[in-house]
Write a structure and sequence with these properties.
With 329 residues, the protein is an alpha/beta fold. It contains twelve helices and eleven strands. The relative contact order is 0.15. Helix 2 packs parallel to helix 3 and helix 5 runs parallel beside helix 6. Helix content is 37%, strand content 16%. An eight-stranded parallel beta sheet has the order 1-9-8-6-5-4-3-2. A three-stranded antiparallel beta sheet has the order 7-11-10, with no helix packed on it.
């Protein structure tokens, strides 16, 4: 380990952000990670992320304010805004005006986003899937990068495994590197940190939490999922996404277009084969058979819905046990 054999987590530092545990909660849209989940993670010592996808600017501002009110002590809240969305600039500027602790963005990068963050004195974190993108992000002004591998849920930017990409990214940049995609337990965290990551990002595990903003039917889908329930689907964003198989994934497995009630004109580039946004809204409204339910590759390992604090406590204990085990071998 680059940071030495210690039972406690090493300190993650991104600008002014110094959480008790080096764990970011993934920004999951639509409506999966809002103020309730993000504030619970922040209260448990991690870093909470509100997804700005699929909600209005007014709703996003309200969730930022609500999350702040729910945080009991020092806690960090950021907003995830997707570059692929038409409202990207508007959402990012609004989040900066609300003085969030950081902005995290995926599905593309632009020079402007780093400039806006620098002007506001707020760190901007990029989600990348290669060393090349990580280097570009650092050069443009990213405060940290999240390396997301093929094991992640939702839209995938690569077919390579995270632990294969991670060393290349760590070697190529001098800013903090966060490992994401397939992180499920304390042993995974130890492996990522031992390779030189500064922290990890976890999405799927936090969906099955009591405080997650998704409905119970959505969370139960995660608890019930088996390994062979997962499927890769080509969404209208132009990327593959990993989802739990249901009636909707069967419908979109072919090449036929589905009837769209009303186009939201949400994406900069869209195939219009179906509406990705509507399908995500459908599932978060509780109809988990007729909408997309994105999930990570190891969702089958989740057996119960737990409070966020218990999830963090379990991860901490598993991490310490893994460190002790590594000392004995």
């Amino acid at each position: 380990m680059k940071w030495g054999y210690e039972l406690n987590f090493p300190q993650l530092k991104i600008g002014h952000i110094m959480p008790k545990v080096p764990i970011l909660q993934g920004g999951m849209g639509v409506g999966i990670s809002l103020s309730k989940l993000a504030s619970a993670v922040a209260n448990a010592g991690g870093i909470g992320i509100i997804s700005g996808t699929g909600i209005s600017v007014t709703e996003m501002r309200a969730h930022i304010k609500k999350a702040r009110n729910l945080i009991k002590d020092t806690g960090y809240i950021g907003v995830n805004v997707l570059f692929a969305m038409n409202d990207f600039a508007e959402k990012m500027k609004a989040a900066l005006e609300e003085k969030v602790d950081f902005i995290i963005s995926g599905a593309g990068i632009s020079r402007d986003m780093y400039t806006w963050g620098k002007q506001a004195g707020i760190p901007v974190i990029s989600i990348v899937s290669s060393a090349k993108l990580a280097r570009i992000s650092e050069r443009l002004g990213a405060s940290a990068v999240v390396v997301e591998g093929f094991e992640a849920g939702g839209h995938l930017g690569t077919n390579r495994l995270m632990f294969d990409i991670l060393p290349e990214v760590i070697e190529s940049v001098s800013i903090p590197v966060i490992a994401a995609g397939g992180i499920m337990n304390g042993s995974d965290i130890l492996k990522a940190l031992s390779m030189g990551a500064s922290g990890v990002q976890m999405g799927t595990r936090f969906v099955a939490s009591e405080e997650c903003d998704a409905p119970l039917a959505f969370k139960q889908k995660f608890v019930n999922a088996q390994k062979d329930d997962l499927v890769l689907v080509k969404t209208t964003v132009g990327l593959q996404g990993r989802a739990i198989r249901n009636h909707f994934t069967n419908l979109i497995s072919g090449s036929d277009k589905l009837k769209i009630a009303k186009c939201q004109d949400c994406l900069k580039n869209c195939s219009y084969r179906f509406c990705t946004l509507d399908s995500l809204v459908t599932s978060v409204n509780g109809d988990v058979e007729n909408g997309l339910v994105f999930a990570g590759a190891r969702v089958d390992e989740i057996k119960e819905i737990l409070p966020v604090q218990k999830i963090i406590d379990n991860l901490t204990l598993e991490f310490k046990e893994s460190v002790n085990k590594s000392l004995l071998t």
